[in-house]
From TrEMBL:
Residues 1-261 form the Protein kinase domain. Its EC number is 2.7.11.1. It comes from Amniculicola lignicola CBS 123094. This is EKC/KEOPS complex subunit BUD32. Keywords: ATP-binding, Kinase, Nucleotide-binding, Transferase.
């Protein structure tokens, strides 16, 4: 089946497109603001409404991308000029600039973001280094909230997001919870520490069944010599009762590295 070619278009105020996802473009409005809008005008609008509801529930937090509201064009968001953590790691000159403390700090900030959203009854459902953005100080901000949120009245908002294969906790259904976010965090920490995703020899789409089989059988990538490997293993093995415990261990590792430097 041939893929559909989706032409780029520019809503009012968008100067250029700086990113895109499966159903949206990210357009630059100014040096502080971007617009997330449908790849095809008018499509998937419910996802943008749900994402706005989740951002509203989360409010302001240093580890969460700021949202400035939804209008007829799309969702106005903070511009994270440092790009994604994944893109940073895949740029050799940028990656070489990272110290051990930098990597642990990113892992701790990523865990802080997830621990926070869980206190707000939000499950992200797509934790990945491509959804961790970097601000001007190269601090992490979590983005792309199309997961699950239950408000105080018990109303469920579900954007039907789902982790990719290398971040996916094998489970009987595709239902997501704190445990699946925690498992995906393990894969994100692994990528930050090592520089590439788990199982680089496997393709996320073509080898999806093999990846799931390995995870089901507890066949994780080797962690010998990996900084913070014990934290990654605890995430993958679901040892932590909550993400806050992961934050505390990463903070301890960060403090140790700072004192030793």
């Amino acid at each position: 089946m041939e893929g559909r070619i989706v032409p780029i278009y520019f809503p009012k105020g968008v100067g250029k497109v700086i990113g895109f996802g499966s159903s949206s473009f990210i357009g630059l409005l100014d040096d502080r603001t971007v617009l997330k809008y449908p790849r095809t005008a008018g499509e998937h609008w419910n996802r943008f409404f749900i994402e706005q509801q989740i951002y509203n529930a989360l409010g302001s937090h240093p580890r969460i991308l700021a949202c400035y509201g939804l209008d007829e064009r799309g969702l106005k968001l903070e511009y994270a000029s440092g790009g994604t953590v994944r893109d940073f790691l895949r740029n050799p000159s940028y990656a070489l600039s990272l110290t051990r403390c930098d990597r642990v700090r990113w892992c701790r900030q990523a865990a802080e973001a997830i621990a926070y959203i869980h206190t707000k009854n939000v499950i992200h459902c797509d934790i990945s280094t491509r959804n961790f953005l970097l601000d001007t100080k190269l601090d992490i901000k979590l983005s792309d909230f199309q997961g699950v949120y239950v408000d105080h009245d018990g109303v469920l908002f579900n954007g039907h997001a789902l982790e990719s294969a290398k971040s996916y906790l094998p489970r009987p259904s595709t239902g997501s919870d704190e445990r699946s976010d925690l498992f995906a965090l393990g894969s994100a920490i692994y990528e930050i520490m090592v520089g590439h995703e788990p199982f680089p020899e496997l393709d996320e789409l073509d080898d999806e069944e093999e990846i799931e089989k390995r995870y089901l059988n507890g066949q994780f990538p080797a962690l010998n010599g990996v900084l913070g490997g014990y934290v990654i293993q605890k995430c993958w093995s679901l040892v932590y009762d909550h993400v806050k415990a992961c934050v505390e261990e990463l903070q301890g590792l960060e403090d140790y590295l700072i004192q030793a430097s």
